[in-house]
């Protein structure tokens, strides 16, 4: 359930994200075949051999992976052959053996939209060498560090401005001023003494925007800093503002004026910005600016009024109706883990759209209401576009994702799974030992959070009119029942409905949840089964994550979706979503269907009736609060939520027709499993129950069922390096119990899977690497665990 995502702001965030990554080429997902490196070359002049940074005490470095084998190999294909060394006392030493270098703490890999590289945090100039383990090919980098002495500000002179005009997207910025009349003084030297304030030009009140999300100013969302050209500040504005830089220790300050000129509209007539025929590039990408309105580019507040349609077999259908259009909206840029046709926004002085992968010719059209009002008649106010497809454009290969077995309504048993929690709803009322009610219309009684922060139209109750169990089925029903609340007596929630959760009753971390339900139809009807973290250890939504097992739009009964939300606290949140399309003749309303999520440490997979449709891996998610933890925020227990919402931003603020209410979601069961040896219920096998050890008292692995638990004991740190079936090498920091013992799980292996691995650890006398070991699942024998 997406919360706190006001339509326009979320749209702008999506645009900013798209602008940040550009139109990334589609990357066909390939098996990470074992390969050797025959040559390496720097990706660009900015990515080596010398990279210089300055900072107070330390600086962060990053570079894109080299070009391998003249471009014939990707990093995924050669990662098992690639090592990293550091020069110590004139000698090259493997980085895992050098004290002070800890993977995922001060160095590691990064991945962004299919582009990969290394990052380092350093406090001294350092020489790094990438090398081939097989044949000795090397590539050297010098990461130059210059330490900066801090000072305070006595004066500031602008290098740009102080009068600046924002572009159509509201984007504007300026380079850092000259501090203390000395161009040699860098921003880093005075950063601790510098404050930034803003205000609308017609206001007299300055706003401190540092860590002040309540003001609406969010770092890296609508303002931030850039490093090019010496660095400076950037802003995305919707009105004219003043920006004040001020010293914390003196009276020195400097005021800038960013002017945003809102265009005058008369007839709202659309015309092409530049051409109407576009050809897909080698990756299948097409991008073009949105049409002009009355001769000038649109601004952010106008984006939500555009109408996007695609021609399917001679009929124009909404691009957002993915079941008919064949396109999924990807608000965070192209998702190369999905084989779907995707589209989204980009921004670079003007706003535009991107599409990928376009493999066949097609037509779309873009319209705008003739009265300039959202939902108004478009008439013939369209611009028509022709796409020339590239039949050779790559499309990610998801054929390696197998379908799964599901239980029956009367028998939850699933081979290889252990049932750990369930509700079959066989009683006569809701089991409040398993579920709690959520009631009301506001989040934390905040008047600005009406409609659960989503502009929803329902209030939730604990009434048996809205939540009741009957004939072995849970019913959650929305009724026409207006009600106001003390937070704002003049605002009415038009509908009542139900929302229940397992918070403080049941949580789980990693496993499988099955949810068998029959869903209602209707405009604005929004049934959902989803999960939130019990403790939100990384901060408020969505920094601590959200997992959507199933969401549906009642007006589109041929489609359901799954998603994860992550990133920072709203509105600096991100999400990834996929959609399932029911076979012809089926809908989510004409029968019960089973919606499944499998949650593993490094990925999520979604299914309907056992059929796979979407996957997200941990290199796609992150939490701002834990940048060096690749599993965050999805490494904590979550609880289950079921509700039936009405209206809200999920489907564009649509309200039900009178015939759509009452609407009822019917749930036959909710079942949660862990991987295990049986499917009939019970607890997970404990230590020694069906477990074997391969290794010794210091290091090795314990096998339990299809799960492995690697361990290192008596160490000051431990990293695991492994690859499965000759795939790409994974380098991970093992989890400490605080007493010198480290573990790391690798779960859900299949018979015959080959795992190659070695450890890097420090037993107290210095770091060392163990030899490579090989484990074959179902073949390698061990000794019984005690």
Count of helix runs: 4
Please indicate the percent range of residues in DSSP E strands (runs of 2 or more): 35-45%
Note the overall shape.
globular
| Average of pLDDT | 87
Detail the poorly predicted runs: 2-34, 677-689
N-C termini distance: 45 Å
Radius of gyration: 28 Å
Q: Biggest sheet: strands, sense, closure? A: 10 strands, mixed
- Fraction of helical residues: under 10%
Q: In total, how many beta strands?
A: 59
* SS class: mainly beta
Protein name: Glycoside hydrolase family 16 protein
Family: Belongs to the glycosyl hydrolase 16 family.
GO molecular function: hydrolase activity
Domain GH16: 385-678
Structure description:
The protein has 786 residues and is mostly beta strands. The strands form 13 sheets. Strands 32, 34, 35, 36, 37, 39, 44, 45, 46 and 48 form a ten-stranded mixed β-sheet that branches. A seven-stranded antiparallel β-sheet has the order 33-38-47-40-41-42-43, with no helix packed on it. The protein is globular and about 80 Å long.
Task: Describe, in short, the structure shown.
The chain has 786 residues and is mainly beta. It is built from four helices and 59 strands. Belongs to the glycosyl hydrolase 16 family.
């Amino acid at each position: 359930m997406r919360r706190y995502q006001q339509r326009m702001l979320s749209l702008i965030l999506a645009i900013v994200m798209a602008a940040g990554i550009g139109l990334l080429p589609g990357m066909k997902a390939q098996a990470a075949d074992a390969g050797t490196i025959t040559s390496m070359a720097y990706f660009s002049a900015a990515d080596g051999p010398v990279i210089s940074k300055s900072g107070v005490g330390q600086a962060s470095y990053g570079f894109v992976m080299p070009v391998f084998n003249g471009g014939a190999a990707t990093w995924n294909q050669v990662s098992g052959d690639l090592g990293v060394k550091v020069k110590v006392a004139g000698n090259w030493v493997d980085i895992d053996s050098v004290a002070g270098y800890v993977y995922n703490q001060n160095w590691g890999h990064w991945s962004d939209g299919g582009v990969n590289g290394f990052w380092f945090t350093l406090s001294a100039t350092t020489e790094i060498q990438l090398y081939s383990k097989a044949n000795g090919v090397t590539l050297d980098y010098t990461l130059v560090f210059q330490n900066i002495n801090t000072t305070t500000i006595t004066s500031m002179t602008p290098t740009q401005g102080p009068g600046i005009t924002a572009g159509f997207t509201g984007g504007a910025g300026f380079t850092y001023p000259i501090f203390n009349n000395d161009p040699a003084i860098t921003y880093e030297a005075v950063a601790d003494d510098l404050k930034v304030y803003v205000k609308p030009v017609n206001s007299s009140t300055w706003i401190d925007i540092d860590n002040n999300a309540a003001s609406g100013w969010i770092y890296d969302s609508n303002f931030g800093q850039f490093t090019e050209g010496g660095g400076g500040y950037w802003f995305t504005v919707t009105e004219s503002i003043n920006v004040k830089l001020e010293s914390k220790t003196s009276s020195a300050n400097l005021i800038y004026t960013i002017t945003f000129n809102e265009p005058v509209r008369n007839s709202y007539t659309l015309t092409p910005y530049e051409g109407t025929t576009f050809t897909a590039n080698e990756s299948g990408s097409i991008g073009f600016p949105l049409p002009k309105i009355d001769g000038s580019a649109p601004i952010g507040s106008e984006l939500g009024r555009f109408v996007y349609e695609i021609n399917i077999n001679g009929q124009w259908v909404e691009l957002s109706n993915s079941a008919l259009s064949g396109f999924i909206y990807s608000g965070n840029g192209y998702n190369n883990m999905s084989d779907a046709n995707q589209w989204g926004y980009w921004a670079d002085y003007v706003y535009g759209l991107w599409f990928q992968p376009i493999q066949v010719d097609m037509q779309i059209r873009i319209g705008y209401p003739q009265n300039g009002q959202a939902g108004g008649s478009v008439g013939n106010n369209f611009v028509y576009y022709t796409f020339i497809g590239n039949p050779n454009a790559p499309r990610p290969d998801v054929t390696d994702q197998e379908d799964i077995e599901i239980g029956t309504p009367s028998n939850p048993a699933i081979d290889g799974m252990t049932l750990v929690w369930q509700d079959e709803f066989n009683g006569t009322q809701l089991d409040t030992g398993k579920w709690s009610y959520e009631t009301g219309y506001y989040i934390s009684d905040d008047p600005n959070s009406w409609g659960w922060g989503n502009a929803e139209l329902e209030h939730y109750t604990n009434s048996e009119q809205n939540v009741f169990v009957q004939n072995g089925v849970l019913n959650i029903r929305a009724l026409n029942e207006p009600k106001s609340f003390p937070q704002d007596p003049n605002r009415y929630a038009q509908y009542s409905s139900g929302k229940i959760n397992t918070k403080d009753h049941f949580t789980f971390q990693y496993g499988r949840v099955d949810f068998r339900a029959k869903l209602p139809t209707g405009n604005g009807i929004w049934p959902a089964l989803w999960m939130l973290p019990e403790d939100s250890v990384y901060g408020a939504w969505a920094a601590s994550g959200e997992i959507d097992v199933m969401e549906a739009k009642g007006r589109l009964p041929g489609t359901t979706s799954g998603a994860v939300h992550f990133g920072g606290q709203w509105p600096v949140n991100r999400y990834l979503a996929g959609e399932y399309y029911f076979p012809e003749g089926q809908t989510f309303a004409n029968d019960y269907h089973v919606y499944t999520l499998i949650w593993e440490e490094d990925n999520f997979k979604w299914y309907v009736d056992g059929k796979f449709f979407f996957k997200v891996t941990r290199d796609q998610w992150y939490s701002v609060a834990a940048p060096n933890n690749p599993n965050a925020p999805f490494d904590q227990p979550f609880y289950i939520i079921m509700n039936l919402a009405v209206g809200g931003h999920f489907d564009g603020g649509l309200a039900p027709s009178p015939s759509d209410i009452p609407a009822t979601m019917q749930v036959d069961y909710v079942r949660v499993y862990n991987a295990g040896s049986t499917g009939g219920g019970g607890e997970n096998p404990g230590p020694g129950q069906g477990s074997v050890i391969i290794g010794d008292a210091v290091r090795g692995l314990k096998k339990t069922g299809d799960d492995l638990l690697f361990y290192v004991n008596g160490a000051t740190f431990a990293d695991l390096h492994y690859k499965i079936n000759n795939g790409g090498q994974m380098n991970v920091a093992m989890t400490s119990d605080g007493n010198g013992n480290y573990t790391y799980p690798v779960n859900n292996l299949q018979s015959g899977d080959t795992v190659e691995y070695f450890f890097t650890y420090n037993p107290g006398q210095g770091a060392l690497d163990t030899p490579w070991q090989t484990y074959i699942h179902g073949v390698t024998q061990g000794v019984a665990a005690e």
